[in-house]
Every structure is written in structure tokens, then in C-alpha cells.
Amino acid sequence: MFLFITKIIIHIFKNTKYIYIGDKVDKIKIGIPRGLFYYYDGYFLKNFFEYLNFELVVSPETNRIIIDEGINYANDEMCMSLKIFLGHIAYLKEKCDYVLIMRIDNYGRYDQTCTNFLALPDLVNNLFDVNILDINLNYLNNQNMYNELKKIGKKFGISISKLKEAHNSALIKTKKHNKNLITINKNKLYKNGLKILLVAHAYNTHDKYIGETVIKFLERNNINVIYSNHFESNKIKELSYKYWPNLYWYYNKENIGSLVSVYDKVDGIIFLSSFPCGPDSLVNELVIRKIKKPCLNIIIDDLNSLTGIETRLESFIDILEQKV
């Protein structure tokens, strides 16, 4: 009888911020996978949900265990970044009540995203037995971040006024955070020493497995690393038209626009992507053919040798030093 009543109570409060079990009140735990969209909207989303007093469970930095878990769930055609993302889902699946997943369709008519971002909720739903809390971004259909968060607020019984407070608070903090990152990035352009632009998606640049190996090695060799994703998005996106007037993918526009923005201020360019990323393999190859700067194209997969990557980076630095 007690178990029956408990189940009823849990069901009644399923759509609130708390789960009531007898006299005990537990916050609902929302899991955030540290991959893909996390490196674009993770800071904002964490501040938003923390303001509303949810308990957040963010998966750890990518490690070998997470990679192997992701590979177990993935198929051969999936890129390394997506395999890593699935590994983070596998880590979270039994540690939270909901897993937050973003479906990013587009940021406008001419700003499309990779099909991986479009399929994420369906993919996770088919592979894992988890409750999905999804955010669907489709700016062509007026499905922006605020409107999607209102749906989540309604699901958990959060008032519009409280949700607006959380949204505005998170937005202010995020703008300040991003402005600081942009300032730090631009200041590197005026420092002494070699400067290398790292052209990569944020989820590759800042992932511990994919980007950290490259970044740490460059910094140990006193290289100023400029990040392609730490610029004003709206401004640099327009600059991409110099190399590709009708580029389809939004994030590639940002990468190529950053290259145009600092082309005359850097000594070399490194293109970093995960195997087998379709958009990157096409865009990076065509841009490499057009630029006249020394460049290095690194493609990461789950079989990469750390020694092999460092050897290539060392040779690239030697070339740049000889040209200066």
C-alpha cells in the first residue's frame, strides 16, 4: 500500500522541480552532456537552470572511458565528436532524472547546421533509456531559445515571470563571459611571439581529447593560440563570403570568417576537425587551396597517436620560425 501511494505522489509531482517521496523532497536532476552544443550554449543553460534551483549533473571532461562508451553506441559513419557526445550520454544515463538535449535545425534561412545537431534527440532516444528534456532551435519557425525554455518552464510549473528572471540573468552573465573570452582572444594578436589561428568548431577546440592535445603543445612552445570561435559571431560570419559566398553551414561560416578577420595578423593556421566530418572535410580543403599562409590540417579519430600529432606540430612550428 505504501509503495502504491508513493508511486502516485511521484506521478503527481512529476512535472514540478521536485520529486516528493514521503517526507523527503529531492530536486530534479538535469544532466548536461559535455559535448557538441555544450560548448556553444552550456554556460547559458547552466546559469539558467541553476537560477531556477534545479540540480545539474554535468558529465566530466572527455576521457578514454567516455570515448570507448561512445564508440560502443555509435556506428562507423558517425564523426568522432558525435561518438564522444554519446559517451557523455552513457555516463549520465543513470545519474539524473532528465538529460538535456538540443536539436539545432537552423539559425535562419541561410544558417543551417550539421545533420548531427538536427538528429540528436531522436538518436539519443533510440540508443538510450533516458528521459529527454529537449530544446528545439529552428529560427525559421520562431523556435528560439527563449520560446523553447518557456515550454520547459510550463512542463515544470515555473511562472513566466520567474522564467524571464532566469533567462535574463543567464543572458547577462553569458554576454559578459563571452565578451571576456573575445577580449582575451584579441589581445593575443598583439603579443610577442608566433601566433597561430586554430580553426575548429568549439566542441573540438575545447574538448579535452580532441583539442587539448594540440593547444597544450602549442602553449608549451610559447605559441599564442587564437581561437576561431572566440570572436563576435555576427561580424565574422559575414566575412566568410570572401572565400565562400554561399556557404551552407553556420558554424563553418564562423570558422572561415575568423580566418578572414585575422589573416594578416597570424603567422600560421591550423585546421582541426574530427573524422569523418563531412562539412569540415569539404570546407577546410577548399579554403586551404585558396590561402597563402602556412597551414596544417589535423583530423582526429579514436586511433590517433599523441606522439604523431606532436611530431607534426613540432615540424609546423619549425617552418613558421624559419619564415619569421
Mind explaining what this structure looks like?
With 324 residues, the protein is an alpha/beta fold. It folds into two domains: 2-176, Rossmann fold; 191-323, Rossmann fold (3-Layer(aba) Sandwich). The chain has 13 helices and ten strands. The protein has a four-stranded parallel beta sheet, sandwiched between helices. β9 (268-274), α12 and β10 (295-300) form a beta-alpha-beta unit. It is globular and about 65 Å long. Mean pLDDT is 88; it is low at 1-16 and 19-25.
In short:
This protein is α/β, with parallel strands linked by helices and 324 residues long. Helices cover 51% and strands 17% of the residues. The strands form 3 sheets. It has a 4-stranded parallel sheet, sandwiched between helices. It has a 4-stranded parallel sheet with strand order 8-7-9-10, with helices on both faces. It has a two-stranded antiparallel ribbon with strand order 1-2.
Question: What attributes does this structure have?
Answer:
disordered N terminus; 4-stranded parallel β-sheet; Rossmann fold; alpha/beta; 324 residues; 2 domains; 17% strand; 10 strands
